[in-house]
Design goal:
The chain is an alpha+beta fold. It is built from three helices and six strands.
């Protein structure tokens, strides 16, 4: 009986999640693309949202072999926890941001993002990016669907395009 309850809870919690999946292709080898994206801060997409306080701390300190938990310090003096969940060198990495202390994130439980890199042809890489937003309340998910989802999808797409352009320019030089 207990496992049935747990399964129901898992399904209930899953309903409070929303994902944005984007696939891009870049004309560089997998290891070059992986290093470029891993070294960049994938939270930069939130800089364009005036109502979200941006963090001041260099969050690029999540590197393989270092501490896997890092505290983000926002300009409004609030914090969040950033955790490196998984890093398979040259293949994928996953990060989770949670424990938001700001009321601006009241309905948001966590943001998880995963990047998976695969070789397309000899000098080309396909990058699958997934941002998952986990909400505390169903109402937060409704607000996300109506007010934020399309804007976030556009901003993530533009950011990834910009990252690919930068990467290809670096390869040409």
């Amino acid at each position: 009986m207990k496992s049935v309850s747990n399964n129901w809870k898992a399904k209930k919690d899953k309903k409070k999640e929303k994902e944005i999946d984007i696939i891009v292709k870049v004309n560089t080898p997998v290891q070059v693309a992986f290093n470029h994206f891993y070294d960049w801060d994938m939270l930069d997409i939130f800089k364009t949202f005036w109502y979200i306080p941006y963090f001041e701390t260099d969050s690029n300190s999540l590197k393989t072999g270092t501490d896997k938990i890092f505290t983000l310090h926002f300009k409004d003096l609030h914090t969040a926890r950033k955790t490196l969940i998984e890093c398979s060198n040259q293949i994928s990495f996953s990060v989770k941001v949670d424990n938001f202390s700001s009321r601006r994130y009241l309905g948001l439980d966590a943001i998880e993002y995963t990047f998976v890199f695969s070789q397309h042809i000899e000098q080309s890489t396909v990058i699958h990016c997934c941002y998952r937003f986990i909400f505390k309340y169903s109402f937060s998910k409704i607000i996300y669907n109506f007010l934020v989802k399309n804007i976030l999808t556009r901003e993530i797409s533009l950011f990834l395009y910009y990252m690919c352009v930068l990467l290809e320019e670096c390869m040409i030089d």
